[in-house]
Specification:
139 residues, mainly alpha
């Protein structure tokens, strides 16, 4: 099992509040107006930020347990792979989904760095939940 797979395994266990999101934007009919696209986009940005937080926390756990430093590139791969496995975009968007998801992950990281600096304080699952619930994290 490579490092990205190890991160994904832990993130899946940690991040369990996805049912609400997928129920909101998993049908083509839920993307058929500008208002729905805007609402779903905001929801997906929030999900990306939460996934990034979970990946960062799990990478920290792996670093402490296995004494392996997880690169930013591997963390991004894990976040994109996690989101891609769950988010089913409309058929007309599938050809760009990795690029869009990569941008969403980069955007979430930039927003979190701007708000919290390079250290996000993710020392426990409770800290992840607290930061994830902070207003405007995914926006």
């Amino acid at each position: 099992m490579n490092i990205v797979e190890k991160i994904l395994e832990r993130v899946k266990a940690l991040y369990s509040d996805l049912v609400y999101v997928w129920g909101k934007c998993d049908e083509l009919s839920e993307w058929d107006s500008l208002a729905e696209i805007k609402a779903n986009w905001a929801l997906l940005q929030d999900v990306a930020a939460r996934a990034v937080l979970c990946v960062e926390y799990c990478a920290g756990e792996i670093k402490n347990e296995l004494k392996v430093l997880v690169s930013s590139a591997d963390k991004k791969k894990a976040a994109v792979a996690y989101l891609d496995a769950w988010i089913k975009l409309p058929v007309y968007m599938e050809w760009v989904d990795d690029m869009v998801l990569g941008w969403m992950v980069d955007s979430a990281v930039a927003a979190l760095n701007k708000k919290y600096g390079k250290e996000w304080g993710l020392t426990s699952k409770e800290a992840v939940a607290k930061v994830a619930k902070a207003e405007g994290v995914g926006k």
